[in-house]
Each structure stands twice: as C-alpha cells, then as structure tokens.
Amino acid sequence: MLSASDLTALGLTFRLALVSTLILLVTGTPLAWWLGRTRWRYKFLLEAVVALPLVLPPTVLGFYLLVVLGSRGPLGSLMEWLGGRSLAFTFTGLVIGSVIYSMPFVVQPLQNAFSAIGRRPLEVAATLGASPLDRFFTVALPLAKPGFFTAAVLGFAHTVGEFGVVLMIGGNIPGKTQVVSIALYDHVEALEYGQAYALSAILLVISFALLVAVYALNRRFRRVQP
Amino acid sequence: MMEWWNRGEKARWIAVIFCLIPARANAEELQVAVASNFSKAMAAIAVEFEAVSGHRVRVIPGSTGKHFAQIMQGAPYDVFLAADVRRPEELEKRGMVLPGSRFTYAVGKLVLWSPRAGYLDGEGAVLKNGNFRFLAMANPRHAPYGRAAREILQAMDLWAELTGRIVRGENVGQAFQYVKSGNAELGFVARSQLHDLGVASKGSHWEAPDRLYAPILQQAALLKEKVSGREFLAFIRSETGLKIICSHGYDAPDP
After folding, report:
1. Nearest by CB to A167, which of B65, B134, B170?
2. Labelling A187: which of A86, A226, B8, B25 has CA 20 to 30 A away?
3. Residue A15, H or E segment
4. Three-state SS for B181?
5. pTM
6. In this structure, are residues B190 and B37 in contact, taking their beta carbons and an 8 Å threshold?
7. pLDDT by residue, tens only, chain A of 226 residues
8. Do both B18 and B101 map to the same domain?
C-alpha cells in the first residue's frame, strides 16, 4: 500500500517533529517562565508575537522565510557572507520553519502551567532557603509537569501536520524535505487516491492517538493534584 | 423607527437597483475559470472583449487541477481555460463540456532562467557543468511545465544525475518564486512569466529547443451554453486575441 518514498516521508516527518519539539522545549521553557512571572508593562507585545503563528496563514510565514533565507534576503546574505549556504530546501531550514510555526503550541501551555503554580509554593521554598535555581528545578518544574507534557505533544503533533510552510521552503526533495503532508498532496494531485487514502489514515490515527494521550493524561494529572 | 429611511438612504437604494439592471438587455456576465499561468493574458483579453461585446467577464484564476475538481462538483463556471489538455479532455469524456467546444488556445514555452546576467548561454551548458546547488522546476508528476522540464533533462541525459538537486514547486509559479528569491540559482519557468513580470531583459535565459519536449498545449472549453461564452471563445481565437496571447510569451496554436 505504502511506497518506499512514503515511508521515507513518514520517517522524515517524525524526525523533523522530534527535533523541532526538543528545540522548542529547551528554548520555550525560559521564555514561558519569564512570560508567566514578569510584571513588565509591555509583556503583551511579546505574547502577541508568540501567538502570531496561530493566526498567520502558514503560506505567509513560508513565503517570508523563503524571501529572508534567499541569497538576496537578510539571513541568506548573512549566511553567505559567513561562508555558509542558504537554508532553504534543507532539513535545517525546515527545522527553523517548524520551530517558529509550532512555537505557540509549546510556549502557551508552559506559560499557563507556570502561572498556575502561583507565587506561594515558590515563596515557601525561598523561606526554607532554596536558591532561585533550586526553586525552579525542584518546585516549579515538577509542578508544571502536565504543562510540559501537553506542550511536547501539541508541538510534535502540530509539526507533523505542517504543510504550508514546508510547501514554501521545502522544495519537495524526496528524503530531504519531502514530508508526509507534501507526499500526500502530491498523491492527490496525481490522482493516486489509493496511496493518498493510506497515508491520510496513518496521519489521522497518529494525530488522534496523540490527542487522546494529552487529554487522558491531563485528566489523571488533575485528579492527582488537588 | 423609520428615521434611517431618509432621503439620502432612499437615493442610495435607487442607485443600487439601477446598477443591477444591465446596461444592455443582452449583456451577460461570464464566469471564466482560468489557469493561473494565463491570468495576466486573460485580464488583457477580458478588457478588450468587454469593450467590444458589452458583456462582463469575471475571471477566476486558479490551479487547473482544483478548477477541474470544482467543475466536477458543479461550480458555476461558464468557460474553462486549462493549463493542459488532460483535464478538459477528461471533462469532455464525462459529458461536462459542450461537444466540439474544446480547442487549444495557447502553447506554453519553457525557458531556463537565472537572475544572474551571463550565467546561461545559448546552449544550456550550465546544466552539464553542474555548477549550481539547486535547479527549480514545477512538479513533473502533475504540472505540465514540470513534465516538459523533465523531458528536457531526460533528452539531455541529465535527469538521473541532477535528481538530488532538483527542487520542485507545486506549479510553475512556485518554481519561478524559488529562482526569483535567490534560493535556487536557476530554474525552468514559463516564458510567459518572464514576459508578465518584465524580467525577460534581466538575468540570462536559455530557451529550450522545441524538439526536446512535447508541446505544452493549453486547452479551453465551454461548460454551459451561453451566447457570451461562444462569443468569448471566438474572440480568443480571433486575430486580436491571438496577438494578445503571443505578446504574453505564448506561441499561437497551429491553425
């Protein structure tokens, strides 16, 4: 049912989702921690920037990336000046696109989780002599565990379903940038409905399973924590 | 309660009603689904046709594959100008176009193009030197311009060698975008794109010889019986129509 190139596309998609999610968890945690606790007046501006990929059509984001990464764009010319190469049509380019595209899905659950902890547990830890770093790792992180889980799964699932950005900056190279949504699109355009059905079904099952896991575990977390 | 119904409001409504009455009793509105690559030429043709006939033309640009699917689902288009032969033929087989109305309205030309001046010579030797990182083209699996690009590379015995460096756009418009933005050094684009955007004089290009690829025939068909539709298709084939088509970088179909 699935051709070798479909399997390659599936593998590539999961690799992309995994790498992007890991990068987002590492970079998103300090950002979310800061957003969740700061009293800075203009915090809302940064929050709007983080939420932007939620409302921007992915093709718009992809088009900007294509122009920025191109050899005449700011980032592309900088890369070439540094002796590097343009990142469009490469796996690294897709990772950059996915990190931007999935950012709100990781940062927002984390920020909510950190805000939900409130000041009290951290203040108590402080009076007991815990250093700021200590308070973060031994109090905040364990309490925000459900948030991390939600963030990771949503970031992963959202990247798996990514289409518009990859369509713009991927170049559809099998084994390098041809992710599963693009392979699926190609099947439909070429009227190969059999393969399109098979791939769609796999994506549907995976996405559903991931969301079920999020909701089921969220329920358990809520029960455990009064 | 009826205060809003003041004199100004009444005048406005009367104006609206007058606008709804056609200027000429036999003037019709025509819905034309046209392949994106032809939309600039179409706009020019529509202006001329409206002036001559008094009919109104509404142009709906889009991908031929999607127009095809929409027409199958009963989209209210009167005329279909496709980017290929396959889709109008397919519609004809299903009895969804008026018999005998299908014809070739333009022949697309493929050009290898780079924004860099002097990069391409008259022979396309760069392709053989392989002195580039990415070559852009439309997806050969379903886009007519991509299919032609693949035929050229196969004829030059370069297809297998270049496969890993070919970036494929969803259509020829995206292939053009890849080159224009500088992400790919060169690419197979439609000659009409270079004409439309006025970049023909900039950079360098190689016009692939006709013998290297099967002609890219673009066909049109009438979907609904309509006087304005017949007139419009006749206008496209008229001398004026053909002149506009050629001035946008297409070849005229063989008579």
Report:
1. B170
2. A86
3. helix A4-37
4. coil
5. 0.79
6. yes
7. 678 888 899 999 999 999 999 999 999 999 999 998 888 889 999 999 999 999 998 888 988 988 888 777 788 788 777 877 778 888 999 999 999 999 999 999 999 999 888 888 888 888 888 888 888 888 888 888 889 999 999 999 999 988 889 988 888 888 888 899 999 888 887 778 888 899 999 989 988 998 898 888 877 776 655 4
8. yes
CA A99 to chain B, closest CA, distance in angstroms equals: 20
Residue A89: closest C-alpha in chain B: B167
Domain ranges of chain A: 4-224
ipTM passes above 0.90: no
Our count of domains for chain B comes to: 2
Do B122 and B97 lie in a common domain? no
Residues of B in contact with A176 (CB under 8 A): 164
Quick one: tokens of A220? Answer: 């358990």
Q: Does domain A4-224 have CATH number 1.10.3720.10?
A: yes
Q: Are B187 and B44 in contact (CB under 8 A)?
A: no
At A206, the amino acid letter reads I
B59/B31 Cα distance (integer angstroms): 6
Give me the domain span that covers residue B204: 108-212
Residue B93: inside a domain: yes
Asked if the structure places residue B255 within a domain, the reply is no
